[in-house]
Predict the structure of SAM-dependent MTase RsmB/NOP-type domain-containing protein.
Amino acid sequence: MGRGGNFRKGRGGGRGGKRNRDDNRGGHQPYTRYPEVVKQNERLEGYYNDLLQLPEEEREQFWAALKRELPNSFRFCGSKGHALAVKNLLQTRYIPEITRITYDGAVVEPPQPVPWYPDGLAWWMTTPKNVIRKFPPFSAFQKFLVSETSVGNISRQEVVSMIPPLLMDLRPGMTVLDMCAAPGSKAAQLLEMIHRGEEARIRHVIKQFGGSVDEIKSADDDAARLDADPSDDGRATGMLIANDADYKRSHMLIHQLKRLSSPNMIVTNHDATMYPSLRIPNPEDPSKPNYLKFDRILADVPCSGDGTLRKNVNLWKDWAPAAALGLHLTQVRILVRALQMLKPGGRMVYSTCSMNPVENESVVAAAIERCGGPDKIEIVDCADQLPLLQRKPGMRKWKIMDKSARVWNSWQEVEDHAKSTEDGITPSRLVESMFPRPEGSICADLPLERCMRVYAHQQDTGGFFITVLQKKAEFKAKPEEVRPKEKKQAPKRPLEEAEGTEEAKKQKTENDEAAKTEDVVIEEAPVEPAEEAKAEEVAPVEETPATEEPAAKEEATETPAETPAETPKEAPKEGEVQPERKQKQQGSYEEPFKYLPADHEVIKNIADFYKISPRFPADRYMIRNATGEPAKAIYYTSALVRDILVMNEGRGVKFIHGGVKMYVKQDAPSAEVCRWRIQSEGMPILHGYVGAERVVVLKKKETLKKLLIEMFPKIANGEWEKLDEIGERVRDLALGCCVLRVEPDGDDEEFNEHMALPLWKSFQSLNLMLPKEDRSAMLLRIYNDTTPLINMGIKRDAPKEGAEAKKEGEEEVKAEETETPAEAKTDVTVEAPAAAEEQVKDAEGDVSMKEETTA
Ligand SMILES: C[S@@+](CC[C@H](N)C(=O)[O-])C[C@H]1O[C@@H](n2cnc3c(N)ncnc32)[C@H](O)[C@@H]1O
């Protein structure tokens, strides 16, 4: 079972607890400084003691856990086989090393698998992060963590945050929406699930049609069977739309998700309460679009975040009841909108990192009520899911603490109080939907105990709330209840505001059409919350600076109560998008997504050069510029992503990311050489379809090592012989980009990963077109080697081949920046141009041989 009591007893106090913080730290003091925050808050403690009614001993454990620092946790990600291979390294290489370390007079406890996470792919450890970072004996482990995180094989994610995706029963082929997705740790889990088994399926199909790839045995047997997602030759057909209302945070999301190189993903930037309906093709009548409904939705909503007290220690001083009260209405609106967009039979998860029922059970009950009650929406019983996850049932009765810390038992009590006052006004911020449903209402007997509450003391985690909902049938959502005072302030509906404009007229016609043709019933417009509530919806707790670069090296930060999106106005009707507003944030201009015709000259030229099989779809190539002509990069998307980007163009939908960069333009040494080289992100998708003429197969571990360490190894003047098994093949290969297909010969169990990497052949040398961090991560992972990379192009070329090296340097890869400014910021810089540049400089005599380090 979990790490709760046992290990801590054994260790006499455990990590991060009071003992660790206050005890004499001997020689290691510099590694363990903690901010002095007084971990007390009378109202917080009073409210939860009263609400949870835990037995005394458990109550003490509850508060003690909330006062301790949280364990570090991480998850192995990517395809399951790959994730298991990286996990294996942790177990065989690093854990034995860690168990030899002593710290603070005790043997360090090594990372342990999270007991309830499938396949042992999530881990946690009690050693504080700053000790791992700075205490020298941990350095190899720290390098492993950093390097695998930077290339996307490890995700530093809080343990409780891993729960929601696991309860979604997500299968390949499904369409999924993550409504409040930034910084993206859960979205990454969802995307991995969409791609489960894909690589094995594709290889199987290619093999059937006589392709030259080796089949692989997938760890994911069910998903790897072709019938798991058969309709596109085994390619994943599902889709994730990851959305966040905050523009800057949505770029964190892009950064996080881009590492998964998925053509099946779109990032949008909308207020989830008004998420637009998206058009999709209607095979029966192409002139009338259908509207997308999702198989799965995650609403991991903004919340007051008191479940994160262990991580966000300032909450101890900042906690106030108004934060949760101020978010209730937004949360209900997000959940109602989610349920509207779900397919009948579809499933969704509502989650928060708050323990407050006003953000949890009351939101679930209020949304179900607005959506027609338990006949339409079922709370799914998950008792048999994740059996090793300890949890408490959701509450059926609860009390609400108002802004002034007065606690109310029922709405009736609030109304009675209002009647007894002179002005008859209810205490600010309280609304009926916050309270348990009264006897006789359709939701009075909702099985709210099926909601799941996870408390810090149960398995040494953060606090979390999760509910799984299933939509049983379409419904017409009831309008939000409006108090008379607010009715007067109800804003004009967005379409009225824009009335008279061409766009508004067009949209109105379209909405009317959509309403006629769709059997989906449309929600009435909710109204704005009271002005006062709006003002106070702003988070009372510190927010992570939105400009901060996210999760590549550090755990992605989930901030509680992030800046609420623009105040919700109205959920859109089917077919409706809010009238396009001027983008508020600077730099938020997005380049359009334009698809290239399959018979475009560039696409034909690429297909011809790489001898791409006609089985690979040529009608999903996209570029990001208004001219519609490929200039720098060509992206690839799945068919559904293409349909959505194309059919919703010009409708004001804020798409901000989609597609995997597949080809990048560069200068080429001769007219016969294709100017579009394959980008490493695109390789896993494309390589199986590339003709044997442009493939080099590598089987030996040592040959790959040479290519990883040496940048620009020479091949001219007989030096190709030094490239062992691939020497002759590269000697005979025509110039330009090709696929290096790594198909291990099976002699070495540590070298069994199949890969496809872009390789560039020029007159003089060869080069793997990989970012430096990828090279270094592979060297560490496969060879446990931290040898600095060596640029072979520098020293040896300089004296005798100056002019030629300069030319080659110019011809070598000039990696393009991505086309959108936002992407350019986070994109991995391909290492070759720098090397090429150095070649040039070296040839001119202004730099000497320089070794790159892997630090
Ligand atoms: C709890 S965080 C989500 C964490 C995320 N699911 C993850 O796993 O990394 C809530 C997110 O909701 C976003 N948000 C706040 N109000 C929103 C709204 N009205 N619509 C959509 N997103 C919103 C915030 O910007 C924040 O990124």
